[in-house]
Fold this sequence. Notes:
The chain is mainly alpha-helical. The protein contains two helices and two strands. The chain has helices spanning about 1-25, 45-65; strands spanning about 30-35, 40. A two-stranded antiparallel ribbon has the order 1-2. The longest helix has 25 residues, at about 1-25.
Amino acid sequence: MKALLLIVGILLATAGGVITYRALYVEPKSAVVITESEVRELPNYTRVIGGALLFVGGSALALYAAVRTVK
Protein backbone atom coordinates (compact mmCIF):
# COMPACT_ATOMS: atom_id res chain seq x y z
CA MET A 1 0.00 0.00 0.00
CA LYS A 2 2.80 2.42 0.88
CA ALA A 3 4.55 1.65 -2.41
CA LEU A 4 1.37 2.54 -4.32
CA LEU A 5 1.02 5.81 -2.38
CA LEU A 6 4.67 6.63 -3.11
CA ILE A 7 4.22 6.05 -6.84
CA VAL A 8 0.96 8.05 -6.95
CA GLY A 9 2.61 10.90 -5.03
CA ILE A 10 5.55 10.99 -7.42
CA LEU A 11 3.22 10.97 -10.42
CA LEU A 12 1.12 13.82 -8.99
CA ALA A 13 4.20 15.89 -8.18
CA THR A 14 5.60 15.30 -11.67
CA ALA A 15 2.33 16.26 -13.36
CA GLY A 16 2.06 19.38 -11.21
CA GLY A 17 5.60 20.42 -12.04
CA VAL A 18 5.01 19.94 -15.76
CA ILE A 19 1.75 21.90 -15.68
CA THR A 20 3.38 24.75 -13.77
CA TYR A 21 6.41 24.89 -16.07
CA ARG A 22 4.32 24.80 -19.23
CA ALA A 23 1.95 27.51 -17.95
CA LEU A 24 4.84 29.80 -17.04
CA TYR A 25 7.28 29.31 -19.92
CA VAL A 26 5.93 27.29 -22.86
CA GLU A 27 2.22 27.92 -23.40
CA PRO A 28 0.98 31.08 -25.09
CA LYS A 29 0.16 33.84 -22.65
CA SER A 30 -3.46 34.24 -21.61
CA ALA A 31 -3.67 37.98 -20.99
CA VAL A 32 -2.12 41.11 -22.41
CA VAL A 33 -1.67 44.32 -20.42
CA ILE A 34 -1.27 47.41 -22.56
CA THR A 35 0.00 50.62 -20.97
CA GLU A 36 1.32 53.83 -22.45
CA SER A 37 4.92 52.66 -22.31
CA GLU A 38 4.80 48.87 -22.81
CA VAL A 39 2.83 45.77 -23.67
CA ARG A 40 3.14 42.87 -21.22
CA GLU A 41 1.89 39.32 -21.56
CA LEU A 42 0.75 37.47 -18.43
CA PRO A 43 0.64 33.68 -17.96
CA ASN A 44 -2.47 31.76 -17.01
CA TYR A 45 -2.22 32.02 -13.23
CA THR A 46 -5.00 29.54 -12.52
CA ARG A 47 -2.95 26.82 -14.24
CA VAL A 48 0.20 27.97 -12.42
CA ILE A 49 -1.50 27.80 -9.01
CA GLY A 50 -3.22 24.49 -9.82
CA GLY A 51 0.05 22.94 -10.96
CA ALA A 52 1.88 24.22 -7.89
CA LEU A 53 -0.80 22.74 -5.62
CA LEU A 54 -0.52 19.41 -7.41
CA PHE A 55 3.26 19.53 -7.04
CA VAL A 56 3.13 20.29 -3.31
CA GLY A 57 0.35 17.76 -2.65
CA GLY A 58 2.10 15.00 -4.59
CA SER A 59 5.39 15.73 -2.85
CA ALA A 60 3.72 15.60 0.55
CA LEU A 61 2.01 12.31 -0.30
CA ALA A 62 5.25 10.75 -1.55
CA LEU A 63 7.12 11.95 1.53
CA TYR A 64 4.40 10.60 3.82
CA ALA A 65 4.55 7.22 2.08
CA ALA A 66 8.35 7.08 2.13
CA VAL A 67 8.89 7.89 5.81
CA ARG A 68 8.67 4.98 8.22
CA THR A 69 6.59 5.37 11.32
CA VAL A 70 7.89 3.62 14.44
CA LYS A 71 5.18 2.25 16.69
